[in-house]
Every structure is written in structure tokens, then in C-alpha cells.
């Protein structure tokens, strides 16, 4: 059972971590929490459903190419939708509050999340009902001897690692990535050395949108059933994970996600009657970090500037 | 001059009004001897109008039948009131009803919040009240007894026939419970546990409560997987139910039976869980096909020939029996609301739904329900399914 539960926890951690990375990325660059990340990820899940089931996008390309190409194309288009949405959200609800109190974008993104959720509920056909997510990743086992490792689970884990690796390369090895780091470390200095801050912000939102887009696809694939209001839950868990790992640190986001997922799964599995307290355990963990190690597992201890 | 004329007109009008109302009142008083009134309340407009209108028609039909039979020395008049599914409206129409001294009994509501709003009003006026369609368990209680009785089962009572079916007919003994922490889930789980304990040898192996909105049940399922279960009981609704079943199959638990309550009896459950995964899931739903009720075909014919255009709906038979219970009690003790209270609470009435009698809370002990099983992507009544005659077998059957 331990093996199965560890696997459960790792999978759960993967579904949290891409949302958590979104939180960390935005916080790093903008110093503000973009609270609608969970809803944006679920928007992506619905985009996939839209592409596959409603307009048959996947099937059309399935005929032209092989299934892998059709799948990749579908997911990429959905992720691009999500990136566009993210940029729109930046324009509409974050940019107007740029030089105001950081509470403003916090509130406006919470509001945007609610609006997004309800709009999916209203405008997606039968949007308020639970909806089955197309089984694009096979649920067959890879090896008969290895229970629990289906193609889907393996792809989710590999994709999460891959996305993080690409992100690492992007942030540390490309010019624009280094600019993102520069802006996130010191906004004024970055502007002084000639970094186009606006461009950096847009790129961050596009990259964040793409990550949330892939995240939404993986979440949908893992649960196979989605509903318009799932984003709120994933947003909260993702944010908690980002805080535990250290807000602003994308690797911390992964560590935080795993910690929270392991806490939830093991409380459910090994404490009698613990299931009802699984989420509480996760949030107690967050509380403990805020109290005793507010910078998180991997966050930098920032010295308050006076 | 003009002013004076105006005064005269006003005076005449006032006099007319006073006399008019007096004569109206006198008229009312005269009729009092033979006017017996019953109030019917239900949602006749608004989102649940279909339920209310079908119930109203059935109720009126029952009263018409009694009036035409001439068994009672007086005619019963039904005052039909519309609660619009809104507790506020319900309370104000109930107030209107109790202000009429001729009303001796009332029956009402499909919406539990409406019933909650009007029950204190009827109770304070000492008018016996039969709930025909609201299912919140708390409506019938020690405090409301004997004023309030209910002919339809509460949302928790459907567990009685489900437990009987699962323990006796299917002979399953080791159960795991997964339920949500909403009032709906909790009350059902409690009812299921209590009912299950009445069967010897039945063991509840585990109980896991999840918040509504939980999506990952794999930790729970991995935990209970190797505990030699005969079945998993799910107390909740479609979304979580579908996820549980889907993830059960994913974790190679497709040979474990899953049973549920009416919250999952919906095509959406099968659609979201996937027809393959949902196959063989058993669930219970209150109500019975009308043709399987005693006198059901006659009821349908009479309803048709009475010329009602709207279908009688799921709660028509309940409203019909509620009306018959009131009139049967009336035949026994007369149209006196004080006597009717006890007469209704202690009645044993055989009608469309079977034999209805009320327990110490005024709740019917007669749970009319149907067991459903998912077969080929559809919820099929058990008696019509291929599982019943053994040509298909349920998950985990020997």
C-alpha cells in the first residue's frame, strides 16, 4: 500500500505543481499574487474539451497526422488560448493597478477568477454540469508487473519534469529569461540597465499562461472529470504550495506541491478517520510555514528594504 | 356645490361598502355549516412548477372523487395556494390560509425551505399538515408531532430499502463508506450505517468523509482496496460519485460493487464515469413506476379522463394519498381540526403508495422506492435488468 500511496502523492503533487509554478512566476516578476491561476488552468481543461469534443479538432488532425502529433497540436493550441487569456487578464485586471497598493491586483485577480469560473459555467454548453475529459493519454499500464504506472501517469510525471527543465533553461540561459530574473530581483536597476520591463512582463505572462495551459491539460487527464468550479480548489492548493516552497521560487513551488500532496495523502491513508482532515492538514502545514519559515523551503530570506 | 356632491357620493359609497362587507360576512357565516376547506400549497409557478402542478391536479382529483362518492355529508373545498418555491411567499400564503377559520387541514410543499417556513404557522393555529413532497429529514420531528406528518420518504429513508436489498438480496457484508460532508451526504451515511447494523454479520470496514469538490479519491481507494470488501457505499452526488467509480476502475477495483443513493441516479453519472466503469453500479431512488402501485393503472386512467393536461409527475401519487388520508380521517372524526390532528397521526391508510402509517415523528414508515442498476450505459430498474434474472452478474458476485 505504501508504494501505491507514494505514487498517489507524487501524481497529486504534479497536478498542484504546475499551478504553483504559475503563482511563483507571476509573483517573482510582479510582486503580486495572481489569484486566478487555478481558474486559468481549468479554462485550459475546458479549451481541450472544446477542441476535442465540440469542434473535433483532434479528430481532424488525427486523420492528417499520427495520434501523437494530433495530441500535441491540440494541447499546444489549448495552451496558446490560455496564454492569450493570461495576457488579456494582465491588461484588464493587473496593469491598471500597477503603481497602486499591491492589495488591488490581489482583489482584482480574485474577482477575475470568479468571473472566469462563472463565465465557463454560463457559456460553455452544459457548463455547470460535470464533464468527462477526453481520454487522450492512455490509461493502459506500461508494464504489467508495475501496477499504477500507466502511460498517462508516466506522461504526467515526465511532462511536469520536462516543463520545469525547459523553464530552467529559459530562465537561466536565454537573454529574456535573464531579464525576467533581473526584473524580479530589482525592478529599478533592471530598468536602468536597459531592460524593457513591459516586454519582460508580457513574456512572463505568456510563459505562465502556457504552463497553466499544460497544467490544465494534465489535471484534466488525471481526473478525467472536470467541472467549471474546480479552479478555486486548485488555485488554493497551488498558492499554498507556492507559499510553502517559497513564493517567487519556481523550484520551491514543486517542493511545496509535493509536501502538501504527501501531507494530504498520508493523512488520508494512515490516520483513521483522517480523510475529512486531509485538506486541514495541508493548510496547517501552510500555517506552520508562514509562522516559522515564512520564506518557504527554497525562498530567499529577503531583507526588508527601508 | 361640487364639494357637496362629492361628499354625498363618498357617503353612499361608504355605506355601501359597510353593508356590502357585512352581508358578505353574513353570507360567510351562513355557509360555515357545510363548508369544509382544505388548503393545498405547492410551487405552481416558478422553477419547480411542474412538480407542484402535477401534485395539485392529483390532490384535486382525490378530493373530487371523495365529493362525488357522497361518503361525507358535506362537500370539501380545496383552497389552492402557490408558494412559488419561495419561503417568503409560502409563509404569506400560509398566513392567508390560517386566517380562514373554515380550513381544517392542509397539505403542502415540494421545497423543504418552504415547508420550514409554513410549518410553524399551521402548528400555531392547530391545523394538521401533511407534507407531500419536501424531503428534508428535519421537517417531521418530535417538536412538530402530531401536527406535521409526511407521506413521502425523507432523503435519508431511501437507505432502508437499499440496505435491505444489498444485505438480503445481494448478501453483501463487508462495506466501505465514502461520503461527502454536506448535510445530504452526512444524513445519508448515518442512515446507511444505522440500517446496515441491523443485519447480522454486516461490518462497516471504513468510513471516509470528503469535502464536496474533492477530485482525488485514489488515496482512499488504495487504502481500502485490499480489505476484502463486498461493496463500497457512496453517500453523495454525481460529480464525486463519478470520480469515485472511475478511479475505482483505474485502481483495478472494478470487481468491487458500488452502491449509491438517488443523488447519483442521473445520466450525467454514467456519462462522466464512463459507461464501462459505471456498469453494475446499484442505486436507489424514491418513487415507483405508477403501474407497479396498487390501483396505479386506475389512477392513470382517472387522471387522464379528468382532463388534466399536465403530467402528474413524481409526486402526484403522494399528493393523492395525502388528500385521501385527510378525507379518511375526516370520515372518522368529522371536520374538526383538533380531532383531525390525532386521527391523521395515528392513521393506517392503504392507498396508491401501499399502507401508510406514521412513526413517532409523523414520518411515513412506508418507503416507496425502486432499485436501479446501470446496464449498458443506462439506469435500469432492477426488476427489468438482466442482472435480476442472473444473465448478468454484479461486480464481485460469486
The CATH class assignment of the largest domain in chain B is: Alpha Beta
Give the strand tally of chain A. 2
Strand residue percentage of chain A: under 5%
- State the domain count of chain A: 1
Q: Shape of chain B, please?
A: elongated
Secondary structure class of chain B reads alpha/beta
What's the overall geometry of chain A? globular
Strand order within the widest sheet of chain A? 1-2
Report on the biggest sheet of chain B.
Answer: 7 strands, mixed
The major β-sheet of chain A equals: 2 strands, antiparallel
User: How helix-rich are the residues of chain B, as a percent range?
Assistant: 40-55%
Mean pLDDT of chain A: 88
In the CATH scheme, the class of chain A would be Mainly Alpha
In what order do the strands lie side by side in the largest sheet of chain B?
7-6-8-9-10-13-14
**Class of secondary structure makeup of chain A:** mainly alpha
- Can you count the beta strands of chain B? 14
Model regions low in confidence, pLDDT < 50 over at least 5 residues of chain B: 20-32
How confident is the prediction overall: mean pLDDT of chain B?
88
Strand content of chain B: 15-25%
Helix count of chain B equals 13
Describe what this molecule looks like in 3D.
The complex is a heterodimer of chains A (306) and B (398). Chain A is an all-alpha fold. Chain A has a single domain (2-292), classed as ABC transporter involved in vitamin B12 uptake, BtuC (Orthogonal Bundle). Chain A has helices at residues 2-30, 37-54, 57-64, 67-94, 103-123, 151-173, 175-185, 187-192, 197-223, 230-245, 250-270, 278-292, and strands spanning 131-132, 225-226. The longest helix of chain A has 29 residues, at 2-30. Chain B has 2 domains: 34-152 and 315-357, Response regulator (Rossmann fold); 159-288 and 369-384, Rossmann fold (3-Layer(aba) Sandwich), CATH 3.40.50.2300. A 7-stranded mixed sheet of chain B has the order 7-6-8-9-10-13-14, with helices on both faces. A 5-stranded parallel sheet of chain B has the order 2-1-3-4-5, with helices on both faces. In chain B, helix 8 (238-250) packs parallel to helix 9 (267-273) and helix 12 packs across helix 13. Chain B is elongated and about 90 Å long. Classes of the chains: A mainly alpha (306), B alpha/beta (398). The interface between A and B is medium-sized, with 32 and 29 residues.
Amino acid at each position: 500500500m505504501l508504494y501505491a500511496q507514494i505514487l498517489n502523492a507524487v501524481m497529486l503533487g504534479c497536478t498542484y505543481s504546475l499551478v504553483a509554478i504559475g503563482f511563483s512566476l507571476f509573483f517573482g516578476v510582479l510582486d503580486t499574487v495572481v489569484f486566478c491561476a487555478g481558474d486559468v488552468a481549468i479554462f485550459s481543461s475546458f479549451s481541450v474539451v472544446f477542441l476535442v469534443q465540440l469542434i473535433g479538432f483532434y479528430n481532424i488532425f488525427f486523420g492528417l497526422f499520427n495520434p501523437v502529433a494530433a495530441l500535441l497540436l491540440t494541447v499546444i493550441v489549448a495552451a496558446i488560448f490560455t496564454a492569450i487569456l493570461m495576457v488579456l487578464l494582465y491588461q484588464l485586471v493587473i496593469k491598471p493597478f500597477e503603481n497602486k497598493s499591491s492589495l488591488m491586483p490581489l482583489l482584482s485577480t480574485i474577482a477575475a477568477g470568479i468571473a472566469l469560473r462563472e463565465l465557463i459555467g454560463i457559456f460553455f454548453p452544459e457548463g455547470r454540469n460535470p464533464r468527462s475529459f477526453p481520454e487522450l493519454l492512455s490509461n493502459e499500464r506500461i508494464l504489467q508487473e508495475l501496477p499504477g504506472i500507466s502511460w498517462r501517469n508516466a506522461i504526467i510525471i515526465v511532462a511536469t519534469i520536462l516543463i520545469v527543465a525547459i523553464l530552467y533553461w529559459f530562465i537561466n540561459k536565454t537573454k529574456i529569461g535573464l531579464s525576467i530574473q533581473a526584473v524580479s530581483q530589482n525592478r529599478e536597476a533592471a530598468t536602468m540597465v536597459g531592460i524593457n520591463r513591459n516586454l519582460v512582463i508580457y513574456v512572463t505572462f505568456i510563459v505562465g499562461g502556457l504552463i497553466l495551459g499544460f497544467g490544465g491539460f494534465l489535471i484534466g487527464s488525471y481526473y478525467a472529470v472536470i467541472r467549471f468550479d474546480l479552479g478555486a480548489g486548485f488555485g488554493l492548493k497551488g498558492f499554498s504550495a507556492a507559499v510553502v516552497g517559497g513564493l517567487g521560487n519556481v523550484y520551491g513551488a514543486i517542493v511545496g506541491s509535493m509536501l502538501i500532496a504527501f501531507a494530504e495523502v498520508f493523512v488520508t491513508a494512515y490516520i483513521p478517520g483522517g480523510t475529512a482532515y486531509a485538506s486541514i492538514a495541508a493548510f496547517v502545514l501552510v500555517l506552520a510555514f508562514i509562522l516559522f519559515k515564512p520564506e518557504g523551503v527554497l525562498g530567499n530570506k529577503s531583507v526588508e528594504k527601508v | 356645490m361640487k364639494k357637496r356632491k362629492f361628499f354625498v357620493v363618498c357617503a353612499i359609497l361608504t355605506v355601501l361598502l359597510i353593508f356590502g362587507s357585512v352581508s358578505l360576512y353574513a353570507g360567510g357565516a351562513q355557509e360555515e355549516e357545510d363548508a369544509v376547506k382544505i388548503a393545498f400549497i405547492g410551487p405552481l409557478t416558478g422553477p419547480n412548477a411542474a412538480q407542484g402542478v402535477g401534485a395539485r391536479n392529483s390532490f384535486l382529483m382525490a378530493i373530487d372523487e371523495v365529493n362525488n362518492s357522497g361518503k361525507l355529508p358535506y362537500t370539501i373545498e380545496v383552497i389552492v395556494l402557490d408558494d412559488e418555491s419561495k419561503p417568503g411567499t409560502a409563509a404569506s400564503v400560509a398566513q392567508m390560509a390560517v386566517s380562514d377559520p373554515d380550513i381544517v387541514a392542509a397539505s403542502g410543499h415540494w421545497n423543504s425551505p418552504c415547508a420550514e417556513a409554513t410549518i410553524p404557522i399551521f402548528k400555531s393555529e392547530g391545523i394538521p399538515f401533511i407534507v407531500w413532497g419536501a424531503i428534508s429529514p428535519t421537517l417531521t420531528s418530535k417538536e412538530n408531532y402530531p401536527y406535521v406528518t409526511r407521506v413521502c420518504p425523507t432523503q435519508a429513508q431511501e437507505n432502508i430499502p437499499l440496505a435491505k436489498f444489498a444485505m438480503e438480496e445481494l448478501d453483501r457484508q463487508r462495506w466501505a463508506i465514502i461520503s461527502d460532508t454536506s448535510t445530504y451526504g452526512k444524513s445519508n451515511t448515518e442512515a446507511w450505517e444505522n440500517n446496515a447494523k441491523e443485519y447480522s454479520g454486516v461490518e462497516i470496514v471504513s468510513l471516509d468523509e470528503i469535502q464536496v469538490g474533492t477530485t482525488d479519491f485514489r488515496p482512499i481507494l488504495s487504502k481500502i482496496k485490499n480489505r476484502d470488501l463486498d461493496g463500497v457505499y457512496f453517500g453523495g452526488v454525481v460529480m464525486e460519485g463519478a470520480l469515485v467509480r472511475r478511479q475505482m476502475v483505474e485502481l483495478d477495483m472494478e470487481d468491487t460493487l458500488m452502491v449509491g443513493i438517488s443523488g447519483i441516479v442521473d445520466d450525467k453519472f454514467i456519462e462522466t464515469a464512463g459507461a464501462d466503469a459505471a456498469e453494475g453500479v446499484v442505486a436507489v431512488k424514491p418513487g415507483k413506476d405508477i403501474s407497479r402501485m396498487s390501483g396505479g393503472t386506475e389512477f392513470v386512467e382517472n387522471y387522464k379522463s379528468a382532463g388534466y393536461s399536465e403530467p402528474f409527475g413524481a409526486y402526484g401519487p403522494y399528493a393523492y394519498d395525502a388528500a385521501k388520508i385527510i378525507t379518511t380521517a375526516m370520515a372518522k372524526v368529522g371536520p374538526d381540526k383538533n380531532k383531525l390532528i390525532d386521527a391523521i397521526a395515528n392513521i393506517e391508510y392503504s392507498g396508491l403508495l401501499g399502507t401508510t402509517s406514521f412513526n413517532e415523528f409523523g414520518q411515513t414508515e412506508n418507503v416507496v422506492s425502486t432499485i436501479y442498476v446501470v446496464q449498458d450505459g443506462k439506469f435500469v430498474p432492477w426488476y427489468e435488468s438482466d442482472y435480476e434474472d442472473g444473465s448478468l452478474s454484479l461486480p464481485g458476485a460469486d
